[in-house]
């Protein structure tokens, strides 16, 4: 039996949906409906399938004993020559055809590591060149797909793949537990709180900004640049935490299909009441504003995702969507979505094979105005 079992993988449909939303936002791939004409049939699909769709397809292949792309039994998907696509074939074929136009698998992916099952599902499609043929239900096409299915089953039951996938899931589950401890400490200290994000973007190198990106002939390390900026901002914000209300800080490493690199800082801010205040009138905004810049090489500014930024979506319960009251209705669902945005994406893709979420400042349960953490003294 393959390693991929419900007991090993705890990732609900809502977590997958919300994680896909954040991946689409952060990578710059927003889903839009379109139609792809294939084999005399028209199937509506988004321009790029999510990584979770490749995972789902691979998982279905592993668990199904009988895999038939086509049949002589009539279905809603007639082929041009030989019979009809089966329901499985009709759902699987668009994923195959999507490979060549999906920007997730382009230059963007050079330093990106995908979920091992999604990755091997895609890799074997390339290896068997499924996208280079027009599936018509013939014996030649059927044999090529059968060869792919068999190869994927063998690969995923090998010990090397199972160790790789097990390590991936264990790291993800450990991150989830660390986040749960962090957010529980937020609840304990601040039943009312807001989440605000700041994005530090290192822009992709091009002919226009090349001079600004390099210091002489020495190429700057992107992560060093991002972390240096982030550490400076975090220290200044935490030194004024008595006034801006920041009780904890996370960071999330992001990247987009335009090859820009981003480090998102997520600030958790304690609120004493549910009074609505414009975000640009808060003390945190005043502390962050001096750092806002936009140059050919980099950009620093507020994020634009509703669960962790104000002014992006309509008010919810007369509050901004980045405001959370743990005793309010539907807050549990919104907090589940927030966790999917911050943690859930690491189930699907990572940068340089490293988890993208990091706890920068834990919540201090004992308030001490003179307390400065060791990391702030560095």
Give the tags.
single chain; about 375 residues; alpha+beta; 2 domains; seven-stranded antiparallel beta sheet; two-stranded antiparallel sheet; 15 strands; disordered C terminus
Give an overview in words:
It is a single chain. This protein is α+β, with helices and mostly antiparallel strands. It has 2 domains: 31-157, no CATH class; 191-377, no CATH class. Helix content is 39%, strand content 19%. It is built from 12 helices and 15 strands. It has helices at residues 13-27, 51-63, 87-98, 116-127, 139-156, 159-189, 210-213, 222-239, 241-244, 283-288, 331-342, 374-377; strands at residues 34-38, 41-45, 70-71, 84-85, 112-114, 192-202, 214-215, 218-219, 246-255, 261-270, 293-294, 298-302, 323-325, 349-351, 357-361. The strands form 5 sheets. Strands 6, 9, 10, 11, 12, 13 and 15 form a 7-stranded antiparallel sheet that branches. Strands 1-2 form a two-stranded antiparallel ribbon. The protein has a two-stranded antiparallel sheet with strand order 3-4. The longest helix is centred in the middle third of the chain and has 31 residues, at 159-189.
């Amino acid at each position: 039996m393959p390693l991929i079992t419900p007991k090993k993988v705890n990732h609900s449909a809502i977590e997958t949906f919300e994680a896909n939303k954040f991946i689409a936002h952060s990578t710059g791939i927003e889903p839009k409906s379109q139609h792809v004409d294939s084999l005399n049939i028209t199937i509506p699909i988004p321009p790029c399938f999510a990584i979770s769709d490749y995972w789902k397809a691979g998982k279905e292949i592993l668990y199904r004993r009988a895999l038939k792309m086509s049949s002589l039994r009539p279905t809603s998907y007639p082929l041009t020559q030989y019979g009809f696509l089966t329901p499985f074939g009709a759902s699987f074929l668009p994923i195959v055809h999507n490979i060549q136009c999906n920007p997730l698998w382009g230059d963007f992916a050079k330093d990106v590591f995908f979920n091992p099952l999604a990755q091997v599902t895609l890799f074997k499609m390339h290896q068997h060149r499924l996208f280079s043929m027009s599936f018509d239900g013939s014996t030649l096409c059927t044999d090529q797909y059968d060869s792919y299915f068999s190869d994927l089953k063998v690969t995923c039951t090998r010990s090397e793949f199972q160790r790789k996938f097990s390590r991936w899931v264990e790291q993800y589950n450990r991150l989830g537990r660390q986040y749960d401890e962090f957010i529980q400490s937020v609840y304990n200290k601040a039943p009312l709180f807001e989440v605000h994000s700041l994005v530090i973007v290192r822009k992709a190198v091009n002919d226009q900004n090349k001079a600004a990106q390099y210091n002489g002939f020495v190429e700057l390390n992107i992560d060093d640049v991002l972390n240096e900026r982030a550490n400076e901002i975090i220290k200044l914000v935490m030194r004024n935490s008595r006034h801006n209300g920041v009780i904890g800080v996370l960071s999330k490493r992001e990247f987009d299909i335009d090859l820009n690199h981003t480090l998102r800082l997520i600030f958790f801010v304690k609120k004493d009441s549910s009074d609505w205040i414009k975000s640009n009138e808060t003390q945190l905004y005043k502390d962050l504003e001096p750092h806002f810049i936009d140059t050919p090489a980099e950009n620093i500014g507020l994020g634009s995702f509703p669960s962790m930024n104000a002014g992006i979506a309509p008010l919810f319960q007369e509050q901004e969507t980045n405001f959370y009251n743990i005793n309010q209705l539907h807050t549990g669902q919104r907090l589940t979505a927030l966790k999917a945005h911050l943690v859930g994406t690491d189930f699907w893709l990572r940068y340089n094979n490293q988890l993208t979420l990091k706890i920068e400042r834990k919540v201090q349960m004992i308030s001490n105005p003179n307390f400065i953490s060791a990391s702030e003294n560095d």
